[in-house]
Design goal:
Chain lengths: 114, 112
Amino acid sequence: DTAVSQTPKYLVTQMGNDKSIKCEQNLGHDTMYWYKQDSKKFLKIMFSYNNKELIINETVPNRFSPKSPDKAHLNLHINSLELGDSAVYFCASSQSDRDSYGYTFGSGTRLTVV
Amino acid sequence: GQQLNQSPQSMFIQEGEDVSMNCTSSSIFNTWLWYKQDPGEGPVLLIALYKAGELTSNGRLTAQFGITRKDSFLNISASIPSDVGIYFCAGPRAGNTGKLIFGQGTTLQVKP
């Protein structure tokens, strides 16, 4: 059973399109995250939700809108895609927003904007 | 803001060799975490350190939490081809322990 699952694994789309990435966790965790990994492999947090409530928004452009219908799901919608949005996006979860035990990551969604 | 600096950036070693990498910060961290990312996968937690001076092992991996709380190192003994990947250090950002910041990663390649 996959703990944190993301779909799709690969996403190739044209500039200007709108796309969504879905994430689900079956660990019973309260907190979920979106991270972006750039071409240099640097991991940077984008958003964090705790029990469906947004608690971190790291100065991400408004074109990125996370949605958490319940605490097991955190989706990422991106409007008007730009070339610079090409990256690998990782969903992760942790027991709580005070959890120092580390995250469980999904396997990533590689987004390529052409 | 808080930053974690990892070195070396990349390593290319022969199978069987020991590997050492480290992570430093100008800020104090109360927790140090080491993750490994296999190609095409997400990072997976290897070792977690919670106390200054702590030395923890996980199989062939050993990690230490620096006394100053501003550094940590990870050693891999007798490397094997499946050790290939990117190793990240991470720590919770000051003010909220749930939010992790990551180092830039050390890419390890092992020649059989």
